[in-house]
Amino acid sequence: YYCLKWLIYILLFTCFSFFVQMLLSEKVGQLMDWASKRAVIRMNGDKFRRLVKAPPRNYSVVVMFTALQPQRQCVVCKQADEEYQILANSWRYSSAFTNKIFFAAVDFDEGSDVFHMMNMNSAPTFMHFPSKGKPKRADTYDLPVRGFAAEQLARWIADRTDVVIRVIRPPNYAGPLMLGFLLAVIGGLVYLRRNNLDFLYNRNAWAFAALCFVLIMTSGQMWNHIRGPPYAHKNPNTGQVSYIHGSSQAQFVAETHIVLLFNAAVTLGMVLLHEAATSDMEIGKRKIMCVAGIGLVVFFYSWLLSIFKAKYHGYPYSFLLMVL
C-alpha cells in the first residue's frame, strides 16, 4: 500500500513537473518569437496576466506602462518610449542576448485593466518583474529622479537583474551639423569683416555671450543633459500638467526653462538699475528705468523664492509671493 502510494506521488510529481516545463517552454518560445520581430513586446491585459504575472516563469520582464495614443497628449510618454526602444534594441542585437530578460509595454488604451490591477495612476512608469517572487519597491523605476535616458534605465536593470546592456544609439548628425554651421557662420562673418575686426573687442558682445552661458548653466541644463528628465508631467487621470517637480531631488526640463527666464529677468532688472544710476539720459527716463528695474528684481526674485520653497519643503523664507 505504502509503495503504491509513493509511486502515485512520484508519478503525479513527474507529470506536474513535465506540465510546468512544457508550459514554461511554450511561454519562453512565444516571447522569443515576438522579441525576434520587435524589441519591445506590446501587451494587452490577457498577455500581461499570462506571460508576466502568472507562474511559472524563469525570466525577468521589464514593462513600460505608457499612454502613447494622440488623444492622451502625453509628450513625456513619447520621449520615454524612444529611449526605451533604444535600450530594448541594444539588448536585442547584442551578442549577449538571451531569454533571461524581455522588454514589454502596456498602453493604457490597450490594457486599462492592467493599469487598474497594478494601481497605476501615472504614465510612463517602468517596472521590473523578477523571475522569482513578487516585485519589490526597488523594482519600480524612480523616473522623476533618474530620468528616462536609456543609459539610466540600463544601470537600473543591471542593479535588478545582473544583466549588463551596452546602449548603442543610432548615429545622430544634428549636433555636428549645427556645430559646423555655426563655425561656418562665424568664419564667414570674420572673413567679411577681415579689414575691420574691432567687433571682436566689443565688451558688450562678450558680456552678453558670457551672461547667456552663465544663465544656461545655473538653470540646470547640464543636469538635464546627464539625467534626461521629462519635459513635464501630465497626470493621466486628471489631465493636470506639472511643470515644476515637487521634489528637491529632481526637476523637469520645463522647470529649467522657467528658472532661466526668471534669472534673466532679475539680471535685466539689475542692468536697468545700473544704467539708471550711471547713464547721462534725462531724469524722467532714468526714473522709469529705475522703477522697471526694481519691479523686475522684486517680482521675479520673489517668484524664484516661491519655487525654491515649494521644492524644499520646510524652507522658512519667502518674499511677496507666498504660494507658487
Automatic annotation (TrEMBL):
Identify the pathway: Protein modification; protein glycosylation
Q: Give its localization.
A: Cell membrane; Endoplasmic reticulum membrane
**Which keywords does UniProt give here?**
Cell membrane, Disulfide bond, Endoplasmic reticulum, Glycoprotein, Magnesium, Membrane, Signal, Transmembrane, Transmembrane helix, Transport
User: What highest taxon heads this organism's lineage?
Assistant: Eukaryota
InterPro entries assigned to the protein according to its UniProt record, in alphabetical order: OligosaccharylTrfase_OST3/OST6, Thioredoxin-like_sf
Q: What is its main location?
A: membrane
Q: What topology in the membrane does the UniProt record assign? A: Multi-pass membrane protein
| GO annotation terms (biological process) | magnesium ion transport; protein N-linked glycosylation via asparagine
Q: Name one Pfam family in it.
A: OST3_OST6
Q: Where are the transmembrane segments?
A: 7-24, 173-192, 204-223, 258-276, 288-308
Belongs to which family?
Answer: Belongs to the OST3/OST6 family.
Name recorded for this polypeptide: Dolichyl-diphosphooligosaccharide--protein glycosyltransferase subunit MAGT1
- Native species: Erpetoichthys calabaricus (Rope fish)
Lineage of the native species?
A: Eukaryota, Metazoa, Chordata, Craniata, Vertebrata
